[in-house]
Specification:
The structure holds two protein chains of two kinds.
Chain A: E1 5-7, E2 10-13, E3 19-24, E4 31-38, E5 42-50, E6 53-57, E7 64-68, E8 74-78, E9 87-94, E10 106-107, E11 111-115
Chain B: E1 3-5, E2 10-14, E3 19-21, E4 24-26, E5 32-39, E6 46-52, E7 60-61, E8 64-69, E9 74-79, E10 88-96, E11 103-105, E12 109-114
Parallel strand pairs in B: 2-12
Antiparallel strand pairs in B: 1-4, 3-9, 5-6, 5-10, 7-8, 8-9, 10-11, 10-12
Classes of the chains: A mainly beta, B mainly beta.
């Protein structure tokens, strides 16, 4: 069974540009969530989608947005990039239902974003 | 809001020895899950072990086990027979029950395994 797949793995953008990151969850998983990891702030929750609806949102500015498609694949977008957006962006998936296994969250390898 | 605290920024252990990583959390909820994740230099977050709050029995996965003390809100990870491949950053994480699929992470413990 394939794991969580994120693309692209590495990218460099210029301040002011926008970026779109993609995530394909584990087959059968309907919940997809995104995290930002930086040395200073650690791991911070961005948002979570389930069946194309955003269920939970972290404390990030509106420049950070996401969506989920009917096949559960998800994208996150960051507009008007700032230097501080340089980070590892991790996507995670889960069955999203109220069982033990359904509450277990699995991560992809991450997308490294550098803003110059 | 829930918080997770890992008080040991760095730990080291000799190969084949046992090491325990500490984690405490703060919550007023009764339904929740706790996880330990390992992040090696590749930076992929790998699930090590999970614990349901309603289960009194401590979870075990091969060489990894936890000591879950619900009243004390403590969730430590014990690694037995440490191997060089265990060297990584370890994160303790909390998840509420229900439909809130947000993980709250501690700041991590960097584990070094010495040959």
């Amino acid at each position: 069974k394939a794991g969580v797949t994120q693309t692209p793995r590495y990218l460099i953008k210029t301040r002011g540009q926008q970026v779109t990151l993609s995530c394909s969850p584990i087959s059968g998983h309907r919940s997809v969530s995104w995290y930002q990891q930086t040395p200073g702030q650690g791991l911070q929750f961005l948002f979570e989608y389930f069946s194309e609806t955003q269920r939970n949102k972290g404390n990030f500015p509106g420049r950070f947005s996401g969506r989920q498609f009917s096949n559960s694949r998800s994208e996150m977008n960051v507009s008007t990039l700032e230097l501080g957006d340089s980070a590892l962006y991790l996507c995670a998936s889960s069955l999203g239902v109220g069982t033990v296994s359904g509450n277990t969250i699995y991560f992809g390898e991450g997308s490294w974003l550098t803003v110059v | 809001a829930q918080t997770v605290t890992q008080s040991q920024p760095e730990m080291s252990v000799q190969e084949a020895e046992t090491v325990t990583l500490s984690c405490t959390y703060d919550t007023s909820e009764s339904d929740y899950y706790l996880f330990w994740y390992k992040q090696p230099p590749s930076r992929q977050m790998i699930l090590v072990i999970r614990q349901e709050a309603y289960k009194q029995q401590n979870a075990t996965e091969n060489r990894f086990s936890v000591n879950f003390q619900k009243a004390a809100k403590s969730f430590s990870l014990k690694i037995s027979d440490s191997q060089l491949g265990d060297a990584a950053m370890y994160f303790c994480a909390y998840k509420s029950g229900g439909s809130n699929y947000k993980l709250t992470f501690g700041k991590g413990t960097l584990l070094t395994v010495n040959p």
